[in-house]
Amino acid sequence: MFSISLLSCLFLGTVPALAQTGGERRLSPEKSEIWGPGLKAHVVLPARYFYIRAVDTSGEQFTSSPGEKVFQVKISAPDEQFTRVGVQVLDRKDGSFIVRYRMYASYRNLKIEVKHHGQHVAESPYVLRGLKKNFQG
């Protein structure tokens, strides 16, 4: 069955990525990229966001989805017992993702971890340090 589909792909002029590379492309957590305004403490938006770009072990960017659940994102406030943050990881189907999060409380410090199979991606974890409030009575 596989040989028939491979022959039809070759006849039509398209070669699947598996045939081109001799194996499945592997995502590289170290080479993948993370950037955006949601990684800066001074940017205040109702819903914050940042981007993830999937890159393989040879340094080539993915141009199609490497999988919907390939990145795990955890956002926590290390100084607090509970963290109320809603997180969405949106697959753009072009090798990039938008991570959108909304905080339901104010936190002095926020820790953003992005992982792939338990390994940190790019410069993860990111720590956003807020302004310390000095209350004087």
Overview of the molecule:
With 137 residues, the protein is mainly beta. The chain has one domain: Immunoglobulins (Immunoglobulin-like), CATH 2.60.40.10. The chain has 2 helices and 8 strands; from the N terminus they run H-H-E-E-E-E-E-E-E-E. The protein has helices at 2-12, 17-21; strands spanning 33-35, 48-53, 72-76, 85-91, 96-103, 109-116, 119-120, 126-129. The strands form 2 sheets. The chain has a 4-stranded antiparallel β-sheet, with no helix packed on it. The chain is elongated. Residues 1-22 have low confidence and may be disordered.
How would you briefly describe this protein structure?
The chain is mainly β and 137 residues long. It has one domain: Immunoglobulin-like (Sandwich), CATH 2.60.40.10. 12% of the residues lie in helices and 31% in strands.
Can you give keywords for this protein?
disordered N terminus; 31% strand; 137 residues; four-stranded antiparallel beta sheet; single chain; Immunoglobulin-like; mainly beta; 2 helices
Number of E-state strands = 8
CATH topology: Immunoglobulin-like
How much of the sequence lies in strands comes to: 25-35%
Low-pLDDT runs: 1-22
Organism: Mus musculus (Mouse)
GO molecular function: glycosyltransferase activity
Family: Belongs to the KDELC family.
Filamin repeats: 24-130
